[in-house]
Amino acid sequence: MTTDRLTELFEETSADVTPPAFAATAWATGRRVRRRRQVLATVAAFAAVVAVTVPLRDRGGDDIRPAPPAPAATPTPSPAAPGVNGSPMDPGRTSLAPLPAVDVMPPNPVVRSLAPLPADFTVPGDVPKLSGHPVDRAVAVVQERDPDSADQSMRPLHVLDAAGQWVRIDVGDLVRTHDGGGNEADPLRRTSLSPDGRRVAVPQPEALVVIDLPAAKAHRIPVPGLNEQVMWSGDGIVLVGQGSAGVVRVDWAAGTVTQEPAAMSAWHGGGSPVASGDIAELIVADGDRRVRVWRPGDARPASTVAVDFGLVKPLGYGVSEWYGPAMPDSAGRVAAAAWGDHAPTDGSPQSYGGVQMLTVVRTTSGLVERLLDLGMDRWKSCCGVLDWIDGQTLLAQTDREGLITWHVRTGEITRVTTGPVRATVSIRIGRV
């Protein structure tokens, strides 16, 4: 620990402490006593240490010693975990140690635009149709929803092109998906937009519809079953899943459907930007948390390792379950939303359940490299990972903030939208 950091810590510790009334006396006495009175000398020495960073004052406010030079500027540490430095989740605990593995969603994140995404992310009322305005490349696909409305009919899909213009998809004759129990859902998935931003894969009952944006054309491929999930393997293959493990491979251009030997899940996987690339899942099996990697075409997983909570467990964090797709980057990591527990590390028996999180996990070792604590007062499955916009920055959607970016090396969190986004969103800004 550097001298500057010690200085900073002493300042934080003594900022709100009233100086002891005996400080001046201790200094005066310390100058008069003889060597044999070591006890008082020790008290004076302690007061001198405090005076390095906070000048001691008597009750009248006069300095006993001259103020030292201002300490050198130090970098701002990453946001602290709950229960650290006055976090509202554990207000009784204070700690001066920075926690690089855990970040906490600030109450008011800085708003910073991310072109070409609009700040309000509201689709205008009158936009051109795809059939008359083909889109060369989309950065986002949006299906608006209103959870407070009784009308749950199929809402249209809109795409946002690279220039920031909206276009309504009017091809494909899409309907809502449903399961065997009759539960319905909007068909757009966070993984619907292809890695190159040129096609949109939409699961449908007994079919898959792939919308070719540059051609303004919909390809309907028969796929038996009540299909609910999709993910891309490169730009030419769509992996379609239902309510359990197992997917089928759909070559949308050729219109062919084959069973995939790998027992991967389209619920947990995020696909791969590279054709036939490995696909990772974050799962809970037999009470264990695991990261499992599949190689398309192989019946057995390429690897299965236990998730390593070594960086976050000492800070009181545990994951109960992941939900939504595990989005891969190009460096062997996946990011996914989760919920779990946080137990204070100050010895308090109280723990907090139902904490919503975002996690970044190394697929080779299972190490949880970084965790973003989103808090407890959110809807179940409130949040989700959307895209890696560069090698260290994750784009995610939350129920309250809307779209956010999270820099997983520095912990910086910014807000991309000015408010919540009432829509299912699939975004591809960059291929990393």
Poorly predicted ranges (pLDDT <50, ≥5 residues)?
1-98
Note the overall shape.
Answer: globular
Residue share in helix = under 10%
Percent of sequence in beta strands: 25-35%
Order of the strands making up the biggest sheet: 1-20-19-18-17
Order of helices and strands: HHHEEEEEEEEEEEEEEEEEEEEEEEEE
Tell me, what is the CATH class of the largest domain? Answer: Mainly Beta
Derived from helix and strand composition plus strand pairing, the structural class reads mainly beta
**Radius of gyration in whole Å, from Cα?**
28 Å
Overall average pLDDT = 80
The number of domains: 2
* Cα distance spanning the termini: 36 Å
> Total strand count, please?
25
What is the helix tally?
Answer: 3
- What's the CATH architecture of the largest domain? 7 Propeller
**CATH homologous superfamily designation of the largest domain:** YVTN repeat-like/Quinoprotein amine dehydrogenase
How does the major sheet shape up? 5 strands, mixed
As for the CATH topology of the largest domain, it is Methylamine Dehydrogenase, Chain H
Q: Could you explain the architecture of this structure?
A:
The chain has 432 residues and is mainly beta. The protein has two domains: 72 residues, no CATH class; 318 residues, YVTN repeat-like/Quinoprotein amine dehydrogenase (Methylamine Dehydrogenase, Chain H, 7 Propeller), CATH 2.130.10.10. It has three helices and 25 strands. A five-stranded mixed β-sheet has the order 1-20-19-18-17, with no helix packed on it. A hairpin with a 3-residue loop joins β10 and β11. α2 crosses α3. The longest helix is centred in the N-terminal third of the chain and has 16 residues.
